[in-house]
Design goal:
The chain is of the alpha+beta class. The protein has 13 helices and 18 strands. The strands form 4 sheets. Strands 2-1-5-4-3 form a 5-stranded antiparallel beta sheet, sandwiched between helices.
């Protein structure tokens, strides 16, 4: 491809004409455009093939830096080559290990081309991706086969027997119910756990069609479709829930996972179905959720009364009695703290029961962020919160809840960077999305914790004792952002600070003033 052959017309929201977009969308290669002028060089456009190759959705792509494609595989020499080419403003083609949303590795033949403006400054990058995993696999396989073909023949019989024994012993040891199916869903094998869970015999199961078992409990249209998909596409069935009144064992909740299995030569195109009885676990979770909901409601009632009494006390207190006024003020502050903790717990139980109300109103997004920063700054004088950029957007969303998200990210940034005073907030708009980034220079988060911190009640182990918290702030933030059709994520390295970012679509009302 010739260097810098891409001409980009710069209009307000769309870089290219609809015709070109249509052409890009018809391409079998994944194509993305990033905006080098925005913080962290975010993706502002991708075509349909890019979603297909990576498995990510638009919401998970737009606004992100491309590095998510490498997941945790960051030590590849190709990354350095890309960095150098980008710095030099040159185009480059590399073959790099990338990962799909489901974690599957794919080899990406990646062509990156910078776009420069009249002054020679790089404004955008265009990335063209082709999944060359197949070619790579074939190359690797050929090389291996050339060297080891004789050895393989010798080892084959032995390894086959071992693998079969190995698989059988795994199947028998596992506590979940396991079923091996042929491509027509006929049951070839079940393990002891399956017979025990469903109180059935092998005779009632083996050689029968899966969908005919029991009182046809597995004969569910969507499950059929998912299972039919496994062999041609290799897509597993993950955590499919079946609630059913089963023969012999009654009403139960079962969690199903299914994968294609293949043992060299012998087993080909078989499906391994794992069935886990999660009835009890679900009941305990439900009891916990019910407790949370009842407890937070019950706590709220007396607290509301106490707040009222304190307000009353303030009126009756002797204006000369400084000591008494101070004590009442301090009580009031603590009650407010307690009130917001209970409000957070209530939010969690509302989210769990699907009752978190999101009201869409038009509001000035930049003003909301500014006001939120001001109020957080007021009670945190030791940190300096700096605001960069603006969106200029009148946003259609829930102002109170979005302000809660920004306040939460700011309080976390402050809490988890006790000795580093600077917190930066970046605002940006691209196309039909706005993006907020909250950056601190504090503790940072390691890779395995990064995946879990948005879960309910998750707190990073070694900070639990030092910093107070309930582990629900980020969970609530994520739910609020998801309900606005956006996405929230963190970029962080242990010891090197964290940047929490979220994007949301602007939806209807539009733009207030242009940059
Ligand atoms: P909480 O702060 O109450 O524990 P959150 O849900 O807000 O709950 O955060 C979950 C966890 O994520 C925290 O316990 C902390 O370990 C980690 N975390 C959140 N924000 C940051 C940050 N800015 N820097 C480092 N760690 C963070």
């Amino acid at each position: 491809m010739p260097k810098q052959s891409n001409k980009i017309e710069h209009t307000e929201d769309r870089l290219l004409s609809p015709l070109i977009y249509q052409a890009l969308d018809s391409s079998a290669s994944g194509i993305i455009i990033t905006d080098n002028r925005l913080p962290d060089n975010p993706i502002i456009y991708h075509n349909a093939a890019f979603e297909k190759i990576t498995g990510y959705t638009k919401q998970e792509i737009i606004g992100h830096n491309c590095r998510f494609l490498q997941a945790d595989d960051r030590q590849q020499a190709e990354r350095q080559k890309i960095k150098e080419a980008i710095q030099a403003g040159e185009h480059i083609t590399v073959e790099i290990r990338n990962y799909k949303k489901n974690g599957d590795l794919f080899w990406n033949e990646l062509y990156i081309s910078p776009v420069v403006d009249e002054k020679g400054a790089v404004t955008h990058f265009i990335g063209v991706q082709n999944d060359v995993s197949r070619r790579k696999q074939v190359e690797e396989k050929l090389a291996m086969e050339k060297d080891f073909v004789e050895k393989k023949v010798e080892e084959r019989t032995e390894s086959l027997r071992n693998s079969q024994e190995y698989l059988n012993s795994i199947i028998e040891t596992i506590r979940e119910g396991l079923v091996v199916l042929d491509p027509n869903f006929k049951v070839l094998k079940v393990n002891k756990a399956f017979l025990k869970i469903f109180k059935v015999s092998e005779a009632e199961t083996i050689d029968k069609l899966l969908f005919d078992l029991g009182n046809r409990q597995w004969d569910i249209q969507t499950l059929r479709e998912l299972l039919l998909d496994i062999l041609p596409t290799n897509n597993p069935v993950l955590d499919y829930v079946v609630e059913h009144d089963f023969p012999y064992i009654g009403p139960k909740t079962m969690l199903l996972n299914a994968h294609r299995i293949e043992l060299e030569g012998s087993y080909k195109d078989r499906i391994l179905l794992a069935i886990e009885d999660v009835t009890e676990r679900r009941e305990i979770e439900k009891r916990k959720d019910d407790f949370l909901s009842i407890a937070s409601h019950e706590l709220k009632t007396p607290l509301t009364a106490i707040r009222g009494y304190i307000q009353l006390l303030k009126r009756f207190i002797d204006a000369e009695n400084a000591k008494a006024i101070d004590i009442v003020e301090k009580s009031d502050n603590q009650i407010e703290r307690l009130n917001s903790l209970i409000a957070e717990l209530l939010d969690v139980s509302k989210i769990k029961s699907g009752k978190l109300d999101i009201h869409h109103n038009d509001f000035d997004f930049d003003k909301m962020v500014k006001d939120t920063i001001e109020s957080v700054q007021l009670s945190n004088a030791e940190h300096k919160i700096l605001l960069n950029g603006h969106t200029g957007v009148i946003c259609s969303g829930d102002e109170t809840h979005l302000s809660q998200v920004v306040a939460n990210l700011l309080s976390n940034a402050i809490k988890y960077s006790p000795d580093k005073e600077a917190i930066e907030v970046d605002l940006a708009r691209f196309g039909d999305h706005i993006k907020v980034m909250v950056k601190d220079h504090g503790l940072g988060i390691n890779d395995s914790d990064k995946r879990k911190i948005f879960e309910r009640f998750y707190r990073v182990k070694n900070v639990q004792k030092k910093f107070s918290g309930m582990g629900i702030g980020l969970y609530i933030c994520q739910q609020i952002i998801l309900q606005h059709g956006g996405s929230i994520w963190v970029d962080s390295e242990l010891g090197n600070g964290s940047t929490f970012s979220f994007t949301i679509p602007i939806k209807k009302t539009g733009i207030q003033n242009e940059e």
